[in-house]
Amino acid sequence: MNVLDHNGQPLEKWREGVMTRMRMSYLLGGRQLCVFDQFCDFDLGAPIHIHAVEEILEVIEGRAEITLNGESSIVTANQSVLIPAGTKHGFRNLEKTVLHVRATLASPIFEASYENRAEISRRWTPDV
């Protein structure tokens, strides 16, 4: 059994004001899921993007505006949104406190295509 201590896992800066902790991915032993936490400063989050697989976005702490195919909803702690595969989506923090969001992707490798081509399109790919 492989027990991961998430308290000891490092935070990584994904973009200004957005820190990420990978909880599960191919590199951590996952074979079907990618799970990560994001901590976002006010008015920041994830720009509009798509994944080839289904995703669940759950607000752990704070209040987020989640946009799905151009429609926005306010999502608060202990609420989640199912993002169908291939659907444009993004989110941002609506509060002056840090937003904590957990994302679960139906793939062990994080991969996304962003509307803004300056964004990095792939992370945590295996070296095999």
UniProtKB/TrEMBL annotation:
Pfam families linked to this entry: Cupin_2
Cupin type-2 domain ranges (all copies): 46-99
Coiled coil: none
Domain of life: Bacteria
InterPro entries per record: Cupin_2 (IPR013096), RmlC-like_jellyroll (IPR014710), RmlC_Cupin_sf (IPR011051)
SUPFAM superfamilies tied to this protein: RmlC-like cupins (SSF51182)
Protein name: Cupin domain-containing protein
